[in-house]
Specification:
The protein is of the alpha+beta class and 298 residues long. It has 2 domains: 141 residues, Nucleoside Triphosphate Pyrophosphohydrolase (Alpha-Beta Complex); 88 residues, no CATH class. Helices cover 22% and strands 22% of the residues. Strands 1, 2, 3, 4, 7, 8, 9, 10, 11 and 12 form a 10-stranded mixed sheet that branches. A two-stranded parallel ribbon has the order 5-6. Strand 10 and strand 11 form a beta hairpin. It is globular. The termini are far apart.
Length: 298
C-alpha cells in the first residue's frame, strides 16, 4: 500500500504499516488478516468542572474487546445509522470534513452510542425530546427500535430535531492487527449538554468519571488506569487546554492531521508528527491521526 510519501507500506507482525499514510487512506486498502474493519464513532465529551474535564468510561471486564480499559463512549456504525430518512432528520455542517468516509452515518452513530452508553442525548435542544430518547436507551441498545424511528415519532413534519454540528471531528484511529475485532473509528469532540450527567448502561460500561486530562495521564502512568494509544493520545492533545471553550475552538478550527507513533501500545505516551523523537528506535507509526491543536496550558 503506497504511503503518503510514495513509499510502499510493509505490514509488520503487529499490523502497523510503518510508513506515513494520508489521514484519508481508504479503508478498503488497509491491511487485513481476515478480521473485518468496521466503521465506528467515538465521542470525547468535555465540560468545565470547573476547569476542563473529559468523560471517561471503564469497560466491563467481561468485554471481548479492551476489557477493563478506560476509554470514551462509542461503538460501531449500525444498519440503522444508514437509514434513508436521516438527511431529513438532522442538521449537518455545511463544510463537512473530507477526512470522514460516510460522515452522516458516523455522526448518527456517535449520538446513538452516547445515548446508549451514558444516557446523554447530544444535539437535541428540546429537553422533553432528550429525556424521551434517553428513556428508550435499552431498546436502542437491544435493536428493538431505531433512533430514526424515535425522532420521526416525536417530531413534527419537516422538523430537524437532531443538530449534528455539535460534533467536531478531531481524530481517526484504526485498530492494528492482530485483534479479534477491528474498527476504523472517527473521534468527535463535543461539549456536554448543560445539566446532563452520565449514567452508565452497566453492560458495556460499568463506571463513568469526569477526569482532568493531565490527571488521567498521571493515573495511567501510575498503573491505576489501563488505556491504549488512541485514548492516551486524545488525553495528551487535550491536556494543554484549560477549559471546554478552548478545546472546542481548537476542534472547530482544526490543524493539519498528524500521524501517531508508539513504542508500546499501552504503556508509552504517543508522539505525533512534528514531535521530537517520533522516529526513535523501536517506535513505529500507527494507523492513527489527530488534527486537534494541543493548546498551551502548562
Amino acid at each position: 500500500m503506497p504511503g503518503s510519501d510514495g513509499s510502499q507500506g510493509v505490514v509488520g507482525d503487529l499490523g502497523w504499516p510503518g510508513v506515513r499514510l494520508p489521514v484519508d487512506v481508504p479503508r478498503s486498502t488497509l491491511p487485513t488478516d481476515g478480521v473485518p474493519i468496521r466503521p465506528a464513532a467515538t465521542v470525547v465529551l468535555v465540560d468545565d468542572r470547573p476547569d476542563l474535564h473529559v468523560l471517561a468510561l471503564r469497560r466491563t471486564d467481561a468485554s471481548t474487546f479492551v476489557a477493563g480499559h478506560t476509554l470514551f463512549p462509542g461503538g460501531a456504525v449500525d444498519d440503522g445509522d444508514h437509514d434513508d430518512r436521516w438527511p431529513d432528520l438532522v442538521v449537518t455542517p455545511s463544510d463537512e470534513s473530507s477526512t470522514l468516509a460516510d460522515p452522516l452515518a458516523l455522526r448518527v452513530a456517535a449520538v446513538r452510542e452516547t445515548i446508549e452508553e451514558v444516557g446523554i442525548a447530544l444535539g437535541v435542544d428540546d429537553p422533553t425530546l432528550a429525556r424521551a430518547l434517553v428513556a428508550r436507551r435499552r431498546d436502542l441498545e437491544a435493536d428493538r427500535v431505531d433512533l430514526a424511528d424515535l425522532l420521526v415519532a416525536a417530531g413534527p413534519a419537516g422538523a430537524a430535531p437532531l443538530d449534528l454540528t455539535v460534533l467536531h471531528p478531531m481524530a481517526r484511529w484504526i485498530t492494528p492487527m492482530p485483534s479479534n475485532k477491528r474498527y476504523d473509528a472517527a473521534f468527535f469532540l463535543a461539549r456536554c449538554p448543560a445539566g446532563a450527567e452520565p449514567v452508565v448502561d452497566g453492560r458495556e460500561a460499568v463506571h463513568a468519571e469526569w477526569m482532568r486530562p493531565a490527571d488521567a495521564l498521571a493515573r495511567w502512568e501510575a498503573g491505576e488506569l489501563t488505556m491504549i494509544s488512541p485514548t492516551v493520545g486524545v488525553f495528551q492533545r487535550l491536556a494543554g487546554h484549560g477549559d471546554a471553550a478552548s478545546a472546542m475552538a481548537a476542534a472547530a478550527a482544526g490543524t493539519p492531521a498528524r500521524q501517531a507513533s508508539v513504542l508500546d501500545e499501552s504503556t508509552d505516551r504517543v508522539r505525533f508528527e512534528g514531535d521530537e523523537g517520533l522516529d526513535d528506535p523501536g517506535r513505529r507509526l500507527t494507523m492513527g491521526w489527530v488534527w486537534l491543536d494541543p493548546g498551551s496550558v502548562a
